Structure to design on (428 residues):
DNA sequence: TTAATAGCTTGATTCACATCAATAAAATAT
DNA sequence: ATATTTTATTGATGTGAATCAAGCTATTAA
């Protein structure tokens, strides 16, 4: 595990002692697809660090539909704010695919690591990343309509082939699969995109961009 | 101005030298009501610190309606993320009432202050506050319907008397004044609230709470 | 004091998207 | 290979909130 920890970008500035201590206060856990990591309101005893796989952070709206706040894919601190502020988790978290998560005893982590500016800088970076994601979520959901959301989503993913079901894509964009499907249908009819073995190809980038470029 | 800076909670840990340098690289400006502080896309040369008054951070949606992302009232860093990341401002900012803002030359600020963990901690605190506000904005706008938003808003403000027009209240909640008015009408008809010289009084806390307590 | 302007309320209409429903297609299990 | 479950598509209907419109009230200006 020591080697694994050393490779994690977040810990790039840690020396051997740091890593050793980190290892001592952590457990590595593997969760299978669709496992709950924590519920909204749970006590934030552990700092969760996603090492492999993907997670979603979500709440429920008043119709009991999930509202996805963010999706985490790369190595990242999960809900570090709750730890920092010693508050319960503000949202739910579950795995989308099989995932490896490092659970760190936060109190010990805090007293050892959070005195030093190099570690603080790590937190600043992570908080910054979180803010950018949240701002993106807000822009996406509060300033764009569904058609624009889908257009932007396709545009930003392309040409990365990352296979996701339409259902997941729709939920990432906080809309129903029906709405997503109808919009894709429209884009295909307008010859903006085509679908080849589950991946979108953009046929008319300019027109597609017009849908979300304000 | 030196005394003013010393009183600012954010700078509580600064010593005389720090304050002196801060003063050297800053200008204090007073903006009147409804002045633009910066536009989305502007270069983030200055760190803005709100000292007095109130600001709104907002974008436009596709119908050219304002979407208010946050409202700042207390002493706070404004859009510090843009500075930290050396990126253009992601949103617009304007004053709601007359406001005093400290404009700090960010490059100088960074090279002097951001090496030290005590200053970093200040940033961490500010980023944390920003995240909490953003999460609140998201919860409010993505998980609650308009009725619940209004109920929550009234509940959380009460009994603080802070005079705001219905128009401003509506825009804080990202809805039209018409919708706001209709919901207030309904609450009055249900004897949940009453209005006395521009302030709401809650008559039935339990029922009001039911509207937003999931 | 009156005029002008901005904010508030209420009704009618429109719109974007969700919901409900039915069928088809694909993925997974047996 | 067949059965079963999950996902995808398409149409019909419902709904919350925006928009449009008109009259009203309060504030500010002349």
């Amino acid at each position: 595990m020591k080697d694994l920890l050393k490779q994690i970008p977040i810990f790039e500035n840690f020396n051997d002692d740091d890593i050793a201590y980190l290892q001592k206060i952590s457990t590595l856990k593997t969760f299978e697809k669709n496992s709950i990591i924590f519920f909204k309101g749970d006590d934030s005893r552990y700092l969760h660090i996603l090492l492999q796989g993907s997670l979603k952070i979500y709440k429920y709206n008043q119709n009991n539909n999930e509202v996805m706040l963010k999706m985490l894919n790369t190595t990242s601190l999960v809900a570090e704010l709750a730890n920092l502020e010693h508050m319960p988790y503000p949202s739910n978290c579950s795995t989308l695919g099989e995932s490896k998560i490092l659970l760190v005893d936060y109190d010990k982590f805090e007293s050892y690591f959070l005195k030093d500016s190099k570690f603080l800088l790590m937190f600043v970076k992570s908080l910054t990343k979180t803010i950018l994601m949240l701002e993106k979520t807000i822009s996406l959901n509060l300033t764009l309509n569904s058609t624009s959301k889908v257009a932007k989503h396709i545009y930003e993913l392309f040409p990365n082939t990352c296979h996701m079901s339409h259902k997941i894509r729709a939920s990432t964009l906080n809309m129903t699969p029906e709405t997503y499907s109808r919009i894709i249908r429209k884009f295909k009819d307008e010859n903006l995109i085509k679908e080849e073995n589950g991946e979108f190809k953009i046929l008319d980038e300019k027109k597609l961009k017009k849908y979300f470029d304000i």
